[in-house]
Amino acid sequence: MGTLLKGGIVVELEPACVERVDLRIEGERIVARGPDLQAASDDEVITLSGKLVFPGLVSAHQRLSASLGRGMPRPKLQGYEELLEKVRWRYEDALDLDAVQVAATAGGLEALQCGTTTLFDLHSSPKAIQGSLLRVGRGLHEVGMRGVLAYAVTDRRGALGREEGLEETVAFTRKARGRLRGQVGAAPLFTVSKEALEGLAEAVKSTSAGLHVPLAEDPLDEKLSVERYGSSPVMRLVDGGMLSPQALLAHVGHLSWPELAQLLPTGAWLAHTPRSNMEAEVGYAPALKFGHRATLGADSVSADMFAEAQAAWLRSRDAGQPIDVLRYLANGQRLASQTFGTQVGLMREGAVADLLLMDYQPATPLTAENLAWHVVFGLGSRHVESVMVDGVWRIWARRPLSVNPSVVAEQAREAAAAVWARMGEK
């Protein structure tokens, strides 16, 4: 039995394609594409009447655990260092395993509702490390998302915490299957010692997985890295042999051109996070200089990649360096394809069926030539009607099919209150 989507306008991002065509799906894959496909006797036929069939979007850098932090009380802050010490790290220290799973379920559900079907999550819960990635995976499994998970290894809580983090990120990477994969994660490099970096290099080698690390979110990253370890974050990664086409570097906001010139030939992916950067007041990352493997991540804000793409394009245009927003979105799908070893993002035969049905009625013609303008100024998560991941409908007619959103929200509110209370006890 298959699913036949008839009469939809099928969209691909790069090269841009907008075509009225039918799709047939069997199992987890698209098996046929054509202008007038005929249904088999046992096919489920869905008549779309001109609705968009859009590829599922990807957040290349996400912090699902932050889902419980939205709106929490926070002190007045004087710069990035206080943001870390008084907010982010206190919050992470207050997470327990139950909160980790609830946050992943709530954040994953929100992502799906926004049309994001794959997340690359960098997790940190220093007082609840062992089993934390399994809990994140369970949360994403509940809602039916595709996820790539890593634990952010750091020396912030000493050698024991460092070794537990390494063990967690390596163990999960080795056993992850299906819609879940693992990466080797690291915290900002000014919190990562020489011993930790050596451990990360060994983990990357032994798992054949890429490194996922925030880099140069703020100038403090370089300043403290040089003071503590005698070298800049970029040089530490280069000297440690950590950069490759499997590596994923987030933020990348405060690097000199010579440092970027060292990064780009390695083929590493660079995840631009404009909404998070603006919220943290860390300055604008020059995304136009990020090369041909630049993509987008939402970091600690909602995984609404339509909103992220719009913010990225508008901010880049305001800076006088407008980016190719379709390429940035498509590169997220290419990154997912590389990680899962299968084609994600193409609406073609053989690709996995991660797709959105969108009720978008444009007031102007929609073509391949002007698709980027519709993405930036028209399309949004409000148009997402149904979501399929791996050939299975996870949201239908704006209703999640595997979880009760009211229950998820209530559990998240209870967990958030407990986390906030623990923060206040410190």
Polypeptide structure, described:
With 426 residues, this protein is α/β, with parallel strands linked by helices. 38% of the residues lie in helices and 22% in strands. It has helices spanning 80-93, 97-113, 132-143, 158-175, 194-207, 220-229, 233-239, 257-263, 274-280, 305-318, 325-340, 371-377, 405-424, and strands at 3-12, 17-26, 29-34, 44-47, 52-55, 57-62, 116-123, 146-153, 180-182, 184-186, 211-215, 248-251, 269-272, 294-296, 355-358, 384-389, 392-396, 399-400. Helix 2 (97-113) crosses helix 13. Residues 52-393 form the Amidohydrolase-related domain. It comes from Archangium lansingense. Keywords: Hydrolase.
Number of helices: 13
- Low-confidence segments, given as residue ranges, are none
User: Structural class given helices, strands, pairing?
Assistant: alpha/beta
Percentage of residues assigned to helices:
25-40%
Outline the biggest β-sheet: 9 strands, mixed
User: What sort of overall outline do the alpha carbons produce when their principal axes are compared?
Assistant: globular
Q: Mean of residue pLDDT?
A: 96
What amount of the residues lies in strands?
A: 15-25%
Q: In whole angstroms, how far apart are the ends?
A: 57 Å
Rg, nearest Å: 21 Å
Count of individual beta strands: 18
